[in-house]
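Subject line: Sequence and fold of a protein, written as structure tokens
Body of memo: The sequence and its backbone structure tokens, given next.
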Amino acid sequence: MGRLDEATFTALMRGCPACGDVRLEVHSYIDRIVSVMLAEPDDDGRWAHDGEKFVDGVYRVRCTACGAVAIDAPECPRCHAPDGLARALASTSRLKVPKRCACKGSELLVGALVPATVTTRAGKPPPPTTTVAFGEPGFHVTRIECTDCGELTEPSTCPLCDAPGPLRPRP
């Protein structure tokens, strides 16, 4: 589990602890799937997370009205390694996307953890907005799957901060 559990996150979303305003900027590392051909993205990708995984990846919550910071977690959102967040945001993915699979297939599905932001307000929140693109620092490949043969590649260390395993289970 990340720094927040579902109940604590729900309570926090009722409003800023300092001023009560419901407009909160929430930063989270969440799952994204990108189609690639010859190691280049075919699209901008799509979100592949649920509510639990969004909450699990939260590392910062800031009120947009008064600027108060309710959560500022420096540890890795994936494995909790000390100061892992800074390493994750500054580094590029250690798992590199090949141009082709061993079967010579050129179309791959890339799963990644990416930083994203949502600004809450009264009513249903908007979808997250990613703050990085494929290949940029902060975009971390977690799995590569060939669409032809189904071969799957996953990292053996934390995909965000490169801390050694074992990784904690995700919701």
About this structure: The longest helix spans residues 6-12. The beta strands are 24-37, 40-41, 46-47, 58-63, 69-72, 107-119, 129-130, 140-146, 152-153. The helical segments are 6-12, 51-56, 84-90. The CA atoms of residues 5 and 55 lie 7 Å apart.
